[in-house]
Structures are given as structure tokens and as C-alpha cells.
Predict the 3D structure of the following.
Amino acid sequence: MRSAVHTDHDGYLIKAVGVSELVQDEPIALFDKLEPVELVQPEETRLVLDDTPKFRRSRLFLESVLRRTPLPRSERGLALADGFLLNPLPYQQRPAELALKGIRPRILIADVVGLGKTLEIGLILAELMRRGRGERILVATPQHVLEQFQREMWTRFSIPLVRLDSLGIERIQREIPAGRNPFTHFKRVIVSIDTLKDSSRYGHHLENTRWEAVVIDESHNLIGATTQRNKLARLLASQTDALLLASATPHNGDKRSFAELIRLLDPAAIADPNNYEASDIEHLYIRRTKVSQEVQNHLAGKWAERGPSTPIRCAATSAEEKVFAEFAQTWLPGADREGGPVVDRQNRLFPYTLLKAFLSSHVALKETVSKRLESPKCTDERERRALATLLELAAKIRDEDSAKLAELITQLRERGIGPTSTTRIVVFSERIATLKWLERVVPEKLGLKPDAVRILHGGLPDQKQQKIVEEFELAGSPVRLLLTGDVASEGVNLHRACHQMIHYDLPWSLIRIEQRNGRIDRYGQKQNPQFAALILTSSTTGAKDDTTVAEKLLEREAEVHRSLGSAEAVTGEYLADREERRLMEDLLKGKSVEEAVEPAEERDVLADLLADVGTLGDGPDPQRVRVPSLFGSTSDFVGEALQELYRDPETELDLAREDGMLAFNAPPDLEQRLSDLPASYLAAQRVDGTVRLKLTFDRDLAQRKLDETLQKKQTSWPDLSYVSEIHPLLDWLADKTLVRLGRKDAPVVLANVDEPVFLVQGVYCNQLGQPTVVEWMAVRGLPGSPVIEPLDQALRKAEVKPDMANPKADVDIAALEKLVPEAIAAARAHLEQRRADYDESIVEPLRAYRERVDEWEQLALEISTSRSNKVRDAAATQRQLIAELETTGQPLLRLLAVVERAQ
């Protein structure tokens, strides 16, 4: 059984999960005061001579214990950083390093677009899983990146997440009883945050679910204390140990709003939301840009240099000039026009909304005008007449009168889009009406089949959005042109199959332009990203065309990217919508665009946060921890485990090995552990009703197969799975190996020793059942003069290894068993001494945090007496957390094996 222990009014609450065949993966919870719990005493261990070839069973048993024992909380080094399907870059390992330093892994990853936040999240989750603190994971992302995120976690880290999109929710309704909490049925879940925020549907389930790790991607969308997303985030933050927030635009420029986001991570970080410094939250926050020194040091050759942002001017046609003239004469001059503005002060920005619609397309202008005329708020007769005039002029513009459409067709042809080409380009537009129009007219003009063009926008169902992104990514699919709105400007990876982007229209926001460009300008891009923007120009006096705003913003974003690596600090606005609104207001005041986007002179904590935080130049790589192992490689462990568990795996599992791959039919209990993966993915691996696993331990081969998969037409999920150290296969093998011995048994191994060596595991835990001290000990010198040395050192000396021989000699088991109590006593004394040694690393951070909570509570009460009850409650919660994390109770000791010399 795998177990955790919590204290309760009925004694100790023991939660366990079965590992043997009869109770495989079945949970149980019991109170020791209400139900008898038999504590296995290590002194009563029975010794069993291992008669398997090369002591295979003993070596597998020891390896499985090593693998299935969580690393202690006191171990803050990275254990797995180099074992995944990605380049081991120190800058991407920094967030994991930061997360493991704190008393709880709760951080905001604020790296700019394209640096690899998803990979950084995967590294943290993997380290938590190795520590036994990642069994229950919830990931919340925008709906259009659900599959992309899920696929990255599986293909690169071997972390299976069940995807609860619309089809996944249907699966819940089919598989579990009505009213059952879906978040207790599935251990690791990825779901859209917009799905989760439906409190009427999921609120009561989430309130009754504890998680070990919660990830919220694009977390800037949580800002706003009254929003559903914010309420959801506060609920999730209270229900989890680890909390990982990710956002390239981490705040909206408001110190109070950002303070609320930080308080999700640590309620005691900021006492006064109006007055705090970057140093107050440096333990919770990390941000790097592409120009950060450490990033540059490690990206050489792994991220192609960004190409220029090229404005392509398109002279307005005569039909379009008439619309520009109408704007100049009627809508844009402002209060000095005869008769005053067309709209009242409350709607003073609406003329710019109309102008932006027209700069997108005549069809977008028609839609915007029509909606305004249909609005019950549009009652002013002068405005209605002016709108009717615009609508009439827009209606007279034919497709062939669109200068930007003509130039788009020219640009697409010149860049290689055609019936027989393989080139792919993404075209952005802010307006869905424009996108739908382009989808209708572009294919015919380029001689493309309808399936060569896809349109992506937020109005599509989640499954459709995910499918479109996947189709564009697959080189073997017919898609050549992706027409997308700004729904794709957050989180979507388009760089694997594309390096060219055209802005059909430009947002009036540096942030949004940067986010768009980041879809193809990302870590892993192998070709120079190319950007172009269609700039509609007018010769009408007083007209405000794309050279007024859009062209200047395009140039400014490129400058900022080169010099600062990020755009947010330039205007002092940190949300695209607010940035755009302020720009419009500045234009109304008579300011130029250059004046509007000048860097703010004053710097405060938020400006500081946009600089590098948590970055190093030539500093040391993150600390590593070496976990003892009896096998030369994971592949060796898997091979021997299959031989131990099955008499004839080649026949029973149809096991085959070739070209660096291992393939076999998954038994039902292993297939169950893979059930979180997409049903379509598992169905593709199914042969005659059985899932046939294809595995590799070769990272280069796995990456080649992943790249080859993207050349296919049907799926971006490779059929070959890379086996990382947290792959479900390894847990399955370890669990099945562990139950090969009785729970009170320990094997005896004959090896190169002069005296018996007793291998003992010692563990101290906190109130949450999480190990705080783990010692692997070898006891020799018995009877009378016990000596303790590290277990792995003793195994090396004894030459316990795969090629050792088993002479199957007789051993005096009874004599060895008489020494067991003394060996356990010696190990217990050593463990107690080691606990004192561990105290500095365990107790000191908790003591320091308790002092910070005390200081925070006092300062917070001085600032706001009206919040006194909330402050005291928050402080009490944090103190209770500290108490739960302290080492407590008696140690657990377990005799693992005895190494004896052959007689």
C-alpha cells in the first residue's frame, strides 16, 4: 500500500492506495482508533534467501523501494532535470529551483512570450511527483491550448493528464455515477478555466477536493477580485499545497490587483497592497526576457534570430478613400467640428472603434455599424444618419476594391502559398467578420482547396479550436493558411510548422503585437521568424490611416523587443485593452502616437518586476541530487523487471525489441494507469483489443519520432513513448515488484562482504505524511560494534550489480535474524542523530517563515483595522501550515535486505 497519515479527532487518519492485484489503485481511508491497524515492527522481519538468477528479485526489490520512496522535503536539489525530452537548459530549471526553496512550492512564472513556461511547469511537476507531492494535479488553461499542454506533458515528461474538454466531460457522464465528484475519480486533470469557473456545476465539487499541485496558465486573467475566475483561483489556492501561476503579462499595472494575485501564493507576503517592493516577493516570482544574460547564454543555436517587422503599404482605392473622407469630415475632428461631435462624451472613443473596424475591412465596418444601429442605446438621430452614411459607403466597396486583400494575395503568392506548395503562413486579424470574409474569398484567389485554409477564433467550440491548432501543426495535413483572431495570441505554439506571419490588421497595443509575434518567435524555432503588416494608406486630407497608429506601433514593438525584450514597461499599461483605450484617449487629446508610447519616467515596484527577476549570468547551475540506483540505466531496470514478473514475456506480452525500441501488449492493470490519456490516442495504439505500447529510452530517437509525427496528417501524438523516470510504466513495474515479497519479509543476498550487512531505510515525516528525513543505511559490525555507512556505498563495495552470480549456497537464516533487532536499534540511533543534522534545513525555513507571518500580521493590523478578522484568520492558517510541515512522531524503519557472504 502507498499511504499518507493525517491527525484527526478520531486519531490518525490513514489514507492508502492498493498496489497488489486485488486492491490495485483502490483507495482506502481509516482511523486507527476506530479500526485495528497493525504496525509492522522492523525487528520482526523474516529473512528469505533469494534463489533467483543473479539475485534479480532482491535487486529489483531494492531498486523499487528506492524509486517509490519520495524524496524528503529537506532535499531541494533537482533530481530529474536532465531526464526528459528537452534540452536541459539551466534557465528553464530556475523556476523548479525557486519552487523547491520555499516552504511550499508556490510561484508565479512570468517569463516573456516564447521562453518555455510550459516546459518549466513540467519540470516542477515532475520534481513534485518524485517527492510524492504530485499524485493529485489540476491544470487550468485556456480552452484552445488544452490538448497542446496535455501533449507536452506526456510526450516530454511522461505525465498523463486526463483532458476534460467538452468530450472529456461527456466521458465523465458516461463513466462515473451521477453526482460523483469527477475530481476524485481522476487524479490528474487538465481543464479549461472557463469550464471550471462555472460554480453552479463544479463549485461544490472543487470545495470538497484537495490537490497536491494546481497550475493556472495565463494567470493574468485572474485579476479582478469580483470576477468568477478570481473567485475560482482563491478557492483553488486554499485547496492545494503547490500553486504554479504562469503569465507573460503578469499584472495590469495596478499594485493592489497584483498584490491580490501574489496573495494567492502567500497571504503573508504583502501587508500593504499600496506599498511594497520587489524584494518582498522575490521568493514567489521569476521573470526573464530573451535578452536576459542567462537566457542568451543557453539559447545559441536553439532559437533562430527574429527577422524584421516589415510594413507593407497598400494605397486605398477610390471606394475606400470615400470612407476615409467621411471619417475625416464627420467622425474624427472632435469638439471643434460645426455642430459638435457626432457622439456624446460617454461614447467619445466609439469613432476610433469604427475607424479600427474599417482599417480591418469593409465587412468589419459594416458589421460594427449595423450592430450599433440595432442597439437600443443608439437613439441620437444625428448619429444614426452618420452611421447610415458609413454603412452605405461600406456596402459599395466590393472585394476587388479592397487594397489590403489584393496585397494579401500578392504577399501570400510571393511567400510560397499555392496549390502545390508546403509553405504555411498565419494571418492575424482582430475582427471575426474579417476572418470569415477572408476564409471565403482567399482560397479561390490562390487556387487553394477549402481544406487548405482554417479559421480560428474564440467563438468556436473548444474541440474545434484544438483540432485546428493541431491540423496547422501537422506538416502532413493539407492546411497551409491559418486565419486567426487574437484568441491564438496567448499560449498557442505555431512555430514548429511556420515561421511567417502577416498582420492583416494591427491591434493598437504593443502587448498584443508582441503576443501575436510570440506564436512563431519561440524557443525551438529553427528558422528566422518573419513578420509583415498590411498598412492601409490614404491621400485624403485629415484622414487617420494605418500610418497614423499601426505602422508606428509595429516599428516601436520591434525596437522594444531588441532593447528590452518585452513591451509592457513602455506605456506603463499592462493589459492590452487598457493600453489600447489609453492610446485612443491620448489621440483625442491631440497627442501623437510617439508621445503616447514614450517610456514612463517614473519607476515603481511594477516596473521593477518587468526587469529580470531570478536570472543569472554565469552563475552556478541549479543544484542536483543523486538518487541511489542498483541499475546502470532505466532500460536495464525495465528489462529485468519484465523477466522477473513474467516467465516468458516474449510470449505472454508479445514483447519485442528492435532499433532502440521496446514494444509489448499492456496488461489490463497497466492499461488502467494510462487511461488518463486521450481515448483517440490509446485507440490508435490498440491491436486486437489490446493497447500495444511502443517505448524508447533513447532521447534522440524519441525526438526524431516526435518530429516525424508532425509530418503526418492525422495526429500530433507520437506512437512511440519516451520513458522518463516518472513514466507510469516504471511505477507499475516497481509496485508489482514490491509485492513479490511478503510485507514482513526481507531478502538475503550473497555477495562480496566479510560480515553481514543490514540494509535499512529510515524515514521521519510531518503531520501530512510527507517525508522530511530519509536515510538509506547499511549496518555492519554486528554483534557488538555496529557501524553505519551509506547504503549505496555498501552495495558498491559488496559488488551487488546485474552481473553478479548467485551461488545458491546455504545460509544460517536463524543466526542472521537474531541480529536484526540490534541492527534496527543501531539504525534508529543513527537516524535520530541524523534528524538533528537535518533540523537546520528543515526547521530554519519554517522558523523564518513563522517570524515573517508574525511581522506581517502586526503590520497588516496597523494598516487596516477593518480587515482584522481576515488578517488574524490568514495568520492562523499559515501558522497551522507551519505546524503541519514540522517533523513529528516516531520514525519508520524498515529492514530492506541483508547482504551476507557465501559459506
